[in-house]
Amino acid sequence: KAGVTQTPRYLIKTRGQQVTLSCSPISGHRSVSWYQQTPGQGLQFLFEYFSETQRNKGNFPGRFSGRQFSNSRSEMNVSTLELGDSALYLCASSRTQETQYFGPGTRLLVL
Amino acid sequence: GQNIDQPTEMTATEGAIVQINCTYQTSGFNGLFWYQQHAGEAPTFLSYNVLDGLEEKGRFSSFLSRSKGYSYLLLKELQMKDSASYLCAVRDMNSGGYQKVTFGTGTKLQVIP
Prior knowledge:
The complex is a heterodimer. Chain A has strands at residues 5-7, 10-13, 19-24, 31-38, 42-50, 53-57, 64-68, 74-78, 87-94, 101-102, 106-110. By secondary structure, chain A is an all-beta fold. Chain B is globular, with a radius of gyration of 14 Å. Chain A binds chain B through residues 33, 35, 41-45, 48, 55-56, 90, 97-105, and chain B through 30-31, 33, 35, 41-45, 48, 87, 89, 91, 94, 96, 98-106.
């Protein structure tokens, strides 16, 4: 069974631009969560989607948004990029409450 | 909200045993996870505890005490490849009745020969 996939793996943007990241969960997993990871803050929860509905949201500004499609694939969007948005963005999918499986992440660099 | 504390760094010798502690404060507790993350890679699942006690899985064991808000990850027979960050994560219920996982900042373990 294929794991969680994320595209693109690496991305360079400039301040003020917007970016869309994609995540395909493991087949059969309906829950997708997004995290931002930086050296100083560790893993910070962004939001979680289940069956196309956002069930939970972390403490990030409205520039961060997401959605989930009927096939459970999810996208997150960051508008008006800031230097501080440079981070590793991780997606995790789950089928049960007992674990999450992480994708390889998208490393975003904002210049 | 949640507060999760774990040591920032630890060093241990190859072949030895190391215990990584995690304390947490939360309401609506519904499970604690341990993940391993090698530099530049995504976290990988190690263990899950929802009831008090010890869960053993090969060289790795995880313990939970809900009344004390305390968990530890025990690594035995340390190998060089165990050098990584170990993340403690707690799941609890948010105000909307949905569950959310919050991660600690991780413990960077260095295994030395």
